[in-house]
Amino acid sequence: MLGRIKGIDRALLSMINRAARDSLPNEFLAMLRAEEGVVQELLLLPGTLQGEDSALLSLHMMPIDYTVVGTVHSHPGHSNRPSRQDLEFFRRYGRVHIITCLPFNERSWKAYDHQGRPIDLPIVDL
Ligand SMILES: [Zn+2]
What we know:
Blueprint: E1 7-9, H1 10-23, E2 29-35, E3 38-43, E4 68-75, H2 84-92, E5 96-101, E6 109-112, E7 118-119, E8 123-124
Parallel strand pairs: 1-3, 1-8, 4-5
Antiparallel strand pairs: 2-3, 2-4, 5-6, 6-7
The chain binds zinc ion (ZN).
Zinc ion (ZN) is lined by residues 54, 73, 75, 82-83, 86, 99.
């Protein structure tokens, strides 16, 4: 199976932040794919809900794809802390979860593990 996740591609991160801005006032939501330990691709799923309150994936839509390591979603406000719903979701699926918030830049995001604990995910240039 997959080893440790050691970073996120800078280009992907800016793509995420752009998508988050474009999705305002809604949330942006996607799955994260990693290769060789670096998160570097998004997987957009049909049937995801992008509401104003919370973006929740329907679990039955989840692909069986071992390159998927977690999720990313945006908060239209200034907090990148996981909500209670986010925490419930993190526990059930994936290992790395990113939340980005306004102003959607390289400093406004945070990565969490499946228990909602902040993890260090360095930005790497591929
Ligand atoms: Zn959230």
